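Example 3.2
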Amino acid sequence: EVQLVESGGGLVQPGGSLRLSCAVSGFTFSVTAMSWFRQAPGKGLEWVSAINSGGGTTSYADSVKGRFTIFRDIAKNTLYLQMNSLKPEDTAVYYCAKYAGPHGSSWYADLNEYDSWGQGTQVTVSS
């Protein structure tokens, strides 16, 4: 069974850092494209970052580019989102998601193509 479990969220001051983890099981992680999404209070689901099926290409929303880094540790079956220089606008529940199959360019934009989601982890950025 496919499972994705996020952790690492919490309360942090503006300018601080957090590293989110997504522990995965039930599929071949090393060749699976994945993304991080977030949902801020009162807002819809927002795509944050993606890593392609080969693991060599990453993409970021403009709002987090230069501050966040997505990467994976294959040996640990874990996807990470390193978040630096956090802002209050980053406050949200963060979710990792598994892409359903093969992809081409700009694959991450289609929510319907993700077939598994984690339970989410809360990130609150406040002074």
